[in-house]
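Appendix C reproduces, verbatim, an entry submitted by the partner laboratory led by Prof. M.T., so that reviewers can inspect both the input and the predicted structure.
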Amino acid sequence: MHLGRLSVAASFAAIALALTSCSSTSSPAPEAAADSDARVVVANFRAPVSNWALESDDAYVLSIAGCLETLTKYDQTSKTVEPMLATSWKQTSDKVWEFELRENVKFQDGTAFDAKAVTSALNHVLEATAPARAVNPKTIDKVEAVNADTVRITTPAADPLLPYRMASVNAGVLSPAAYTDKGIDPINHCTGPFAPVSEKAGQSLTLDRNENYWDGEVKLAGGEIRYITEGATRATQVQTGEADISMSIPATSLATLEADDKISVLKADSPRTSTLYLNNSRAPFNDVNLRKAATMSLDLPAMAASIYEGAAQPATGPFAPSEPWANTELTVPEVNIEEAKKLVEASGYTQDKPLEIIAITERAEFAGVAAIIQEQFKQIGLKANVVTKSYGSVEPEVLEGNYDMILSQRNRMIDIADPIGFLQADYTCDGGYNLSHYCNKDYDKLISQALVEKDQTKRHDIYREAGNILAEDAANVWLVNEQAIDGVGEKVQGYVQDPLTRYVLTKDLAKTK
């Protein structure tokens, strides 16, 4: 073992977590009878910050709340796209798809769900100033109603993955009355099993059972989604009983929750990677050699052992090795302090002031990760200060390129349940979520090829080649591949964990007295 790895592991032994190896994807089978008058509280890691704009991440909150629904739905178990508000779809030509809508569906305000409502909703997202990553004018040319029950979608080029895009929460459909001059009003304007009835701005969303839900009986009387962006607080709330379900539990809280026999800690493999984003658009990380030096200086196995023990694996690149499009020949980067020093010196970079590492507060473990990075950067002559901020407060500046480094995490399949969404939005020159401001024309050509490739095997080969380019260019430092971890109280029944964090309040969720 590398000496640096031994020292790091020892230095952080005090904060290492002893985790059990148990794993589950859903809560235990119910024994007691469900209470039809029960309500649940969910501590969610995301807060709405864009006035419920469906082209933003606010759409995920409405989906988690059991309010917002889409034409299609990606099933995590079968890995297939299934019907939701549409019952079927077909590709009538390379650039044209038609979706047949479900009959006898009503919005919660009593108005009919039809093709006119769908086209209005999707066009609203397409016309947004900052379009969604999966549904935007680059991916959809036109949405029109063929008749009351059929929607036709035309794409700029052949798009074999359009049904996947229609499963994105950003393609959700609300009642026409939800779209106001002041923004989106979701209150009683959804089709889902739960209807929003009130909101405490910046704090929570309250929902009641949809008595006329198209997909049958809803077991709970209602629920509350609390916006708890601080990970340790989410963990505490499920332990004290203030929350029935806490999403995205940080590694630093796992040992405590797993020792509590009144809580089920659910774990599932997740396409989520904790990443040190490097700003490729300005010094020093506009120099590929400085980016490579940063990668060489970090001991990822020691970091995974000390901070993430039992809940993550050191990353080999932008994909997890288990993903079918990953290059399994990529290995965890080796620590090489001497070579990293040479790269820094050869670059001619001189520090007038320390660089800044932003550690987002939504992930409690990032404070410890940032401390490790800060110390290991010192070994190669890079000084850095650590600041902790909420992601929402820094995202605008990061997207503008006004930062050095940010510790964040990204679920590769959350925009669209296929890597193309992540590869296009995060790393193409014009990508809408290109936090690292990476730009490589050869990479962009590959992604353009993948967008129109119908053969899945060939498409996966292109993804693999694109991942190789990102790794070779050291676009970022991919730190660890994480698990999705939720804490669930003992009275909760029927909770099925979703690693893509879209569905929590479902019609089958229940709670005992």
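The chain has 14 helices and 21 strands. Additional entries are available on request from the coordinating office.
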